[in-house]
Inverse folding.
């Protein structure tokens, strides 16, 4: 496996790094990173806002080959607190020197699975007490899931061959609900109109947002209108 | 008591995973007559190869009495594929906040069909659900879409755990049907199920606790013979490398005698 730094590819702008910075700023993390695997070569590709000296240390030593946050993270369903990995043989090898580079070994990896067997790993770190860490995790875990899938889907669709496969497949129900939102109905109203619970409306909206790569419902409506799936009000 | 098995801890729980696959064979093939593949008494499919999380309920002797399989809806999962008929050709839900629950079952042979005691179908059904919802909630998941059979649906309706909606339609799976239910991973639902079933405190076992519990029904290790105890004492009492090597050599030379004694002992 070879490590490819996507941000060094000339065509790429800095939007992914800015997104990572934004996540750190918004959710009070020190650092964030994203890694995925080339489906053909298996090469690890990624972005991170770690200090440059840590990135070059990591790459020079080829730590991605043994990094348990990558090799266990990619097989998990739920986010993996790095506490769970401390006993794995290579955790210390990777993180023993991390504090010298301003990198905490207190972290969390959110695994994302895509529809074509593609996998993305979104990791965040923070140097803080146990108590702060547990409270922070509880507060932001839902948002981290959103950020992780957003990053992954955007990285995947920045790859031309993958983006062709990724036209959003909205169900009839999702289109119908987006249309009602577009004309200004509340979730409660839509539930009443369609004779389903407002929680079901919310579930379809969550799904539609993810499929459209949108972080908010307003963004989702905008994209659905752009795709001609929903008529503007 | 619940242990969640995933790709990170599966190596420590090989026997437990096999016992779960045997339970699934008995339930989904023998009892429900679903069209599943059973090899060597184990019911496994392509989704088990995708490193799902398994929520497993253990009884007081460490046997598997209930289980459920969890997958993310952002990636490959059953409603997107083999249960596509339920959705009538519509694309499935996809969200990092929605997980799919499949292969939900309890051991009706080992458990009591009446009452709400710890060893009852009702208790274990609730315990698996509480385990799955708490595990999902802590992962930032808000809702689950669960593929279940009508009997399970009825049990859930009666145990403070009624689905808030269904998606798609009920389809014929063999002897019985399958349907997709929506369940919120909310504290309100968890509290309701806990209150109904009388589940108090932490339902999760640590990995070490689970291994201890399982070992209670595994074969006990053979007792050491007096000869082996003597050899080990000599090794422990060695004060320098030379003595230690001599003691180890003695034990190696007596291996056959130690073995035959311990077999008699066991």
């Amino acid at each position: 496996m070879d490590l490819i730094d996507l941000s060094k590819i000339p065509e790429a702008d800095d939007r992914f790094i800015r997104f990572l910075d934004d996540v750190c700023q918004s959710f009070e993390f020190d650092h964030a990173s994203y890694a995925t695997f080339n489906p053909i070569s298996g090469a690890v590709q990624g972005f991170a806002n770690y200090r440059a000296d840590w990135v070059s240390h990591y790459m020079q030593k080829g730590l991605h080959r043994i990094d348990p946050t990558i090799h266990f993270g990619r097989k998990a369903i739920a986010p993996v607190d790095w506490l769970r990995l401390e006993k794995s043989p290579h955790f210390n090898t990777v993180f023993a020197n991390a504090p010298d580079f301003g990198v905490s070994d207190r972290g969390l990896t959110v695994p994302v699975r895509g529809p074509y067997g593609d996998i993305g790993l979104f990791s965040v770190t923070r140097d803080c007490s146990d108590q702060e860490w547990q409270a922070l995790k509880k507060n932001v875990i839902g948002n981290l899931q959103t950020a992780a899938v957003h990053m992954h889907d955007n990285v995947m669709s920045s790859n031309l061959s993958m983006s062709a496969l990724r036209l959003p497949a909205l169900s009839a129900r999702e289109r119908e609900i987006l249309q009602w939102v577009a004309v200004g109905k509340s979730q409660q109203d839509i539930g009443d109109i369609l004779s389903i619970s407002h929680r079901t409306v919310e579930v379809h909206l969550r799904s539609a947002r993810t499929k459209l790569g949108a972080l908010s419902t307003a963004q989702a409506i905008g994209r659905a209108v752009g795709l001609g799936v929903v008529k503007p009000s | 008591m619940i242990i969640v098995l995933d790709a990170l801890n599966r190596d420590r729980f090989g026997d437990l995973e096999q016992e779960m696959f045997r339970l699934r064979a008995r339930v989904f093939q023998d009892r429900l007559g679903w069209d599943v593949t059973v090899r060597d008494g184990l019911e496994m499919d392509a989704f088990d190869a995708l490193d799902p999380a398994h929520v497993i309920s253990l009884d007081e002797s460490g046997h598997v009495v209930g289980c459920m399989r969890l997958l993310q809806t952002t990636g490959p999962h059953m409603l997107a594929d083999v249960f596509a008929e339920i959705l009538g050709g519509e694309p499935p839900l996809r969200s990092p906040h929605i997980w799919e629950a499949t292969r939900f079952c309890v051991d009706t042979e080992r458990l009591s069909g009446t009452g709400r005691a710890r060893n009852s179908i009702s208790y274990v059904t609730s315990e698996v659900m509480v385990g799955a919802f708490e595990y999902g909630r802590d992962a930032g998941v808000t809702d689950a879409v669960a593929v279940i059979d009508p009997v399970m649906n009825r049990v859930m309706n009666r145990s403070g755990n009624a689905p808030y909606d269904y998606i798609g339609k009920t389809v014929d799976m063999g002897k019985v049907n399958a349907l997709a239910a929506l369940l919120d991973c909310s504290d309100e639902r968890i509290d309701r199920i806990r209150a109904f079933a009388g589940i108090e405190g932490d339902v999760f076992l640590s990995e070490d606790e689970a291994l201890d519990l399982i070992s209670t029904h595994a074969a006990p290790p053979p007792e050491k013979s007096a000869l082996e105890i003597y050899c080990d004492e000599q090794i422990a009492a060695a004060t320098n490398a030379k003595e230690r090597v001599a003691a180890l050599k003695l034990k190696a030379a007596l291996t056959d005698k130690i073995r035959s004694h311990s077999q008699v002992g066991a």
In short: Residues 14-31 of chain B form the longest helix (18 residues).
